[in-house]
Design brief:
The complex is a heterodimer. By secondary structure, chain A is mostly helical. Chain A has helices at residues 2-23, 27-47, 51-76, 80-84, 87-110, 129-137, 142-163, 175-179, 183-186. In chain A, helix 1 (2-23) packs antiparallel against helix 2 and helix 2 packs antiparallel against helix 3. In chain A, 8% of the residues are buried. Classes of the chains: A mainly alpha, B mainly alpha.
């Protein structure tokens, strides 16, 4: 019973925070609300005893990704007025579509045909999440695990390929060449008859 | 948790492991190569693809029963052997076709070849997927490389725009696929394709959540194939990308997308065939209609070929919706032949894009016969084959699909398909008209290096040969199911 109350409380905070992310006027506030959303979903995970995922979510997303995000948002000074242009115009249409989808989904999923076969399995006494994850991660799931790492490698290659360009005409100095410079490279001595003043 | 884990057999996945090792090796080698040795990256990439294809074919010899490894995540069956070897060879041909074009525009950086290899690896993973997770990861590996390749030429704003569209719509499609898979997981409690298939059989007929999950998956698959109404990205991406990238996007990934259809619909959701068949039927007819009618109004050849692709996808779906081994084999034959034709048609466009000029409009093809008779003849052959004129391979491809559809008692559908094929023949023949009966606007001769010329002739010869002697390939396709 207490768990159920907690679940609904956290869910309400989560939905509220998610709404605030897209409605907040100040982008910094948006990012902070996103941090709140991550924290609350971590709490939801704790409720189903997935403590490892909860900790990773806080450490990786809140600790690393969101801090970076906050930096970027503060530095580039997003002009929200320009982004929001047309927001109110497309709001009724968007809301209509969303309502329709929610209605349809609730009709279809209302009579739930879900088996519950894939739901969380309670851990055995004294077992730990990390151990359970570790046991399948490098055995049963080693193939997808490796592919995921290849995707990360691809992301690095693609990001470099798309952003790193050696543009000609950049004013960059090459210290090696500068040190090797000799007087005759820079100075041209001309032989010419001396000028006489008449 | 069982502690008796035996390490998986790596043998069936050897080609993938080899390709990944080569990608990593080429990545490091390319880093230390001086620019004038750049062609070495190209040579190594091509070699890696060819060796991998040879390994796939070697593994496929005498393969009777599907081999499953990595705890059911990886499947090597005959379908995988046919599709993987074809995808690798086609990717190799793309590199060959694109070489001079890229060199001329200084786009032949090592990253281009690496991204191509990554996408080939993604295709292999996707084709051999025995599990929803590997299927999704393979799809993402393939698509992410393609997005980056479309955006590769940053000097052109059209490329960036095309990449942006492709990326955003592709992300939405991935989201739909994941959502559909999660619903299927909720109903069946498994992500392994075989288990999902058997649990679906146990479900009551017309289970609504199951149908909902299926609909999302079908939509995602249709996006990857480019079937109407999920086709919007296709013409823009084909037109905006550099022609070698268009060639890549339009060829080998179609084989992977076909594998996705087979793994998800034919194998995973076999029990729902009666339901997804209706969805595919609507999409097939719409694709045929749009592909044949809208293409008539196009003056840009790349855009024209994009709409022609949509029409061909319609035919492919006809084969799939027959939902029996004969239909699947016909669809497999169709997609193989289609990829051969697309390879050749875009290959001609690449060859014509010379001296900094892009051959994109129908005007660029005018009077090609006067400039280069053999090139005009090959292009005409591809156009005839796409239209389905005997004795080209395109004729047999269409015939087999129609045969499978009629066999299932869907004669009306076959008649509709033939009608649209006749309409589409109009714009293919118009291209042939431009090649032979118009005066050239640009009279300069076409220069092509010897290996490209031979590749194009071999490509055209194969389309003709498979039209005269299709038995071997048809038998290979039939044995895959």
């Amino acid at each position: 019973m207490f768990q159920l109350v907690l679940f609904y409380a956290f869910s309400a905070v989560l939905i509220g925070a998610a709404l605030a992310v897209i409605t907040a006027r100040n982008p910094v506030h948006s990012v902070l609300f996103l941090v709140l959303a991550f924290f609350t979903s971590a709490a939801l995970w704790l409720l189903i005893e997935a403590e490892f995922l909860a900790i990773v979510l806080v450490l990786v997303y809140v600790g690393a990704v969101m801090v970076l995000f906050l930096f970027v948002v503060m530095m580039i000074d997003v002009d929200l007025a320009a982004l929001r242009e047309g927001f109110n115009r497309s709001l009724p249409l968007g809301m209509g579509v969303v309502l329709l989808i929610v209605l349809e989904l609730s009709v279809v999923l209302g009579g739930s045909g879900f088996s519950g076969k894939g739901g969380p399995v309670p851990l055995p006494e004294g077992g730990s999440n990390i151990r359970a994850l570790g046991e399948v991660m490098y055995t049963q799931y080693v193939y997808p695990f490796e592919i995921a790492s290849v995707i990360l490698l691809l992301a690095i290659v693609a990001a470099i390929a798309l952003t790193l360009r050696r543009r000609p005409g950049r004013l960059v100095q090459n210290p090696g060449l500068q040190a090797k410079v000799r007087p005759e490279d820079r100075l041209r001595i001309l032989k010419m008859p001396s000028e006489t003043r008449d | 948790m069982d502690m008796t884990f035996t390490s998986p057999s790596l043998w069936p996945a050897m080609p993938e492991i080899f390709l990944l090792a080569s990608v990593c090796a080429i990545l490091v080698i390319d880093l230390f190569l001086p620019p004038r040795w750049r062609h070495l990256t190209y040579g190594l990439s091509l070699m890696a693809l060819l060796v991998t294809a040879a390994m796939v074919l070697r593994l496929g010899q005498g393969l009777e029963e599907p081999q499953v490894t990595f705890s059911g995540m990886f499947v090597l069956d005959r379908l995988a052997v046919v599709l993987k070897s074809a995808a690798l060879l086609v990717t190799g041909a793309v590199l060959l076709y694109g070489r001079d074009y890229l060199r001329e525009r200084q786009l032949d950086q090592g990253e281009f070849y690496l991204l191509t290899l990554f996408s080939a690896l993604g295709m292999m993973v996707l084709i051999s997927a025995g599990h929803f997770i590997t299927l999704y990861l393979g799809l993402e590996l393939m698509s992410l490389s393609l997005y980056a390749l479309v955006a590769f030429n940053r000097e052109q704003s059209a490329s960036s725009e095309a990449a942006m569209k492709y990326f955003v719509l592709g992300a939405i499609a991935s989201g739909m696929l994941l959502y559909g898979m999660s619903i299927l997981y909720g109903v069946t409690g498994s992500l392994e394709i075989e288990t999902v298939a058997s649990r679906i059989m146990e479900q009551p007929v017309g289970s609504l959540p199951l149908l909902l999950g299926m609909t999302f998956v079908v939509a995602a698959v249709a996006f990857k194939l480019g079937a109407v109404p999920f086709h919007n990205w296709l013409p823009d991406v084909y037109q905006g990308a550099n022609t070698p990238v268009t060639l890549l996007v339009g060829s080998a990934p179609k084989l992977a997308a076909f594998a996705m259809v087979m793994r998800l619909l034919a194998q995973g959701m076999e029990g729902l065939a009666g339901d997804w068949r209706d969805l595919l039927m609507v999409m097939a007819v719409l694709s045929l209609a749009l592909g044949s009618v809208v293409a008539i109004a196009q003056t840009n050849v790349k855009r024209l070929l994009a709409y022609s692709t949509i029409g061909h996808i319609g035919f492919l779906l006809l084969g799939v919706l027959a939902a029996n081994p004969m239909g699947y084999a016909a669809a497999l034959f169709y997609v193989l032949i289609y990829v051969l034709m697309a390879l050749g048609a875009f290959g001609v466009l690449i060859l014509l894009s010379q001296r900094g000029m892009e051959a994109e409009t129908l005007d660029d093809l005018k009077g090609l016969n006067a400039r280069s008779p053999w090139l005009a003849a090959v292009m005409a052959l591809f156009m005839f084959s796409m239209a389905g004129v005997p004795p080209t391979a395109g004729f047999y491809a269409k015939l087999l699909v129609l045969d499978a559809v009629v066999d299932q008692g869907m004669g009306t559908l076959a008649i509709v398909a033939v009608l649209f094929a006749v309409i589409s023949a109009f714009y293919y023949l118009r291209v042939v008209w431009q090649l032979y009966f118009e005066a050239p606007i640009n009279g300069s001769a076409v220069v092509a290096s010897a290996d490209l010329r031979w590749l194009l002739i071999a490509n055209g010869g194969l389309v003709l040969l498979l039209g005269i002697l299709p038995d071997q390939l048809i038998r290979a396709c039939l044995s895959a199911f």
